[in-house]
Amino acid sequence: MPTPAERTEESLQEPGCFVALTHSPLDIPSLMDRVRSPEAGAIVIFAGTTRDNFAGKPVIELQYSSYTPLALRTMMSIAQSILAKHSLKGIAMIHRLGPVPIGEESILIAVSSAHRQAAWRAGEEGLEECKARVEVWKREEFGGEEGGVWRANRDGILGQKEEPATGGGGGGGSSEQEVK
Question: Which of 16, 177, 22, 15 shows the shortest CA–CA distance to 110?
Fold first, then answer.
């Protein structure tokens, strides 16, 4: 089985739509180039980054995991729907998997359209749909705590806290409520 470093990027592409999952750092200019069009008067880019705190706790890093084949199909479905709904010239979405250190991007969404209003609306809709529907999970690792918390990659969803291994079977976990 290939290691994360060997599985650099998996993607789907159709006219006007590009979606990908990667273990590599995200490249904003490259994604922007995927949606460029001489017919576009606006390109909007959203970059979601790992911040250094969450709910008053210091964040060490986030780690993302996915069921890649299904996640890519879901991302493409979202992209196609938004492309048609907002009459876009192009839409591209890429999500990083594996560890994402503080200050680095975990998701990029780029959209191009003839006018800025449609681009703004489409970019926000793309982000919200990705967070609500795409099969990506994140593990939050906090400073001063052992283990981490796995959550669906969306707001307000319960997470499962990982307990450190104690050598005594079991392992259980406790649920936490995400506050956003």
Answer: 16
